[in-house]
């Protein structure tokens, strides 16, 4: 499932493509992917300019001229492609937003959705989200006070969206590896240095992954070389059996609270 770096990459690239452009037509192939009747959706969205694209946690928010917002969550398996019809990947498209002869295709939306909401409804929807870990205001002190009463394990705490926004299965493992802590360590049993390290690793890993365009396997548009470059940089995620970059031991895959978890038994403690 795309996490903060993937959605941040989509945001940056889509801003360059469609910010300020009107949506000229809309195709809805899967009504379950939206939250209102297709006619209502089209009436409110068609001919609206995209005024801004924002990311919150694992969501993208497309702000329309009329004040409405398209709230996107790709969930598991969802992705996007932008381009001309002849460039479209051979995949089933659930929703298509057109900008003249260029189209934004939403693919693999099974659990994912594109909901049309007022600004108040969006705020309500996102109200339980924890702080953004890359926000300038997310300081070490903020983090330390946030984990004060936490008794959960590192991985399960990091993926909890009410604790922090935007971290999922992949980056929780990457962060744990980078901080040299085992993903099943209890938060309240970390010493002061380890807490500081965990904070620094959260910031470092998410920043680096964003800079490298995240891990999505499909380019957003023809000629896009940014999306997915982090795949090659990955420390542990999906690297079972491969050598640990730090100590050379084999990366282990295990289940932790029914989530697949990758780590190094030798250099994470
Ligand atoms: Zn290692």
TrEMBL record:
Record has Zinc as a keyword: yes
Catalytic activity, reaction form: Hydrolysis of DNA containing ring-opened 7-methylguanine residues, releasing 2,6-diamino-4-hydroxy-5-(N-methyl)formamidopyrimidine; 2'-deoxyribonucleotide-(2'-deoxyribose 5'-phosphate)-2'-deoxyribonucleotide-DNA = a 3'-end 2'-deoxyribonucleotide-(2,3-dehydro-2,3-deoxyribose 5'-phosphate)-DNA + a 5'-end 5'-phospho-2'-deoxyribonucleoside-DNA + H(+)
SMART domains per UniProt: Fapy_DNA_glyco (SM00898), H2TH (SM01232)
InterPro entries with a match to the protein in the record: FPG_cat, FPG_Glyclase, FPG_N, H2TH_FPG, Ribosomal_uS13-like_H2TH, Znf_DNA_glyclase/AP_lyase, Znf_FPG/IleRS
Listed EC numbers: 3.2.2.23, 4.2.99.18
UniProt KW Lipid metabolism keyword: no
Alphabetical keyword list: DNA damage, DNA repair, DNA-binding, Glycosidase, Hydrolase, Lyase, Metal-binding, Multifunctional enzyme, Zinc, Zinc-finger
GO molecular function annotations of the record: class I DNA-(apurinic or apyrimidinic site) endonuclease activity; oxidized purine nucleobase lesion DNA N-glycosylase activity
Cofactor(s) the protein needs: Zn(2+)
Superkingdom of this protein's organism: Bacteria
FPG-type domain ranges (all copies): 235-269
Occurrences of domain Formamidopyrimidine-DNA glycosylase catalytic (ranges): 2-112
PANTHER family for the chain: FORMAMIDOPYRIMIDINE-DNA GLYCOSYLASE
Self-association state and partner proteins as the record states: Monomer.
Family designation: Belongs to the FPG family.
Protein name: Formamidopyrimidine-DNA glycosylase
Organism: Halobacillus amylolyticus
Lineage, top ranks: Bacteria, Bacillati, Bacillota, Bacilli, Bacillales
Gene designation per UniProt: mutM
């Amino acid at each position: 499932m795309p996490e903060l770096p993937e959605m941040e990459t989509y945001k940056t690239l889509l801003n360059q493509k469609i910010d300020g452009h009107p949506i000229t037509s809309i195709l809805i192939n899967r009504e379950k992917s939206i939250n209102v009747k297709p006619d209502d959706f089209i009436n409110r969205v068609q001919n609206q300019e995209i005024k801004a694209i924002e990311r919150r946690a694992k969501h993208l928010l497309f702000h329309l001229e009329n004040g409405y917002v398209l709230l996107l969550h790709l969930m598991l398996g969802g992705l996007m492609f932008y381009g001309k019809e002849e460039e479209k990947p051979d995949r089933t498209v659930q929703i298509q937003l057109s900008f003249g002869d260029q189209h934004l295709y939403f693919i693999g939306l099974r659990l994912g959705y594109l909901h049309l909401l007022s600004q108040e409804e969006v705020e309500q929807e996102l109200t339980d989200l924890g702080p953004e870990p890359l926000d300038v205001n997310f300081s070490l002190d903020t983090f330390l006070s946030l984990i004060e009463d936490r008794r959960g394990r590192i991985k399960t705490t990091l993926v909890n969206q009410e604790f922090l926004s935007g971290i999922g299965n992949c980056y929780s493992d990457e962060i744990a590896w980078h901080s040299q802590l085992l993903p099943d360590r209890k938060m309240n049993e970390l010493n002061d240095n380890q807490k500081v390290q965990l904070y620094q690793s959260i910031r470092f890993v998410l920043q680096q992954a964003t800079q490298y365009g995240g891990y999505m396997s499909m380019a957003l548009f023809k000629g896009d070389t940014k999306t997915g470059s982090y795949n090659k940089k990955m420390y542990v995620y999906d690297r079972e059996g491969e050598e640990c970059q730090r100590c050379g031991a084999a990366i282990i895959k295990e289940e932790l609270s029914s989530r697949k978890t990758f780590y190094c038994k030798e250099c994470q403690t």
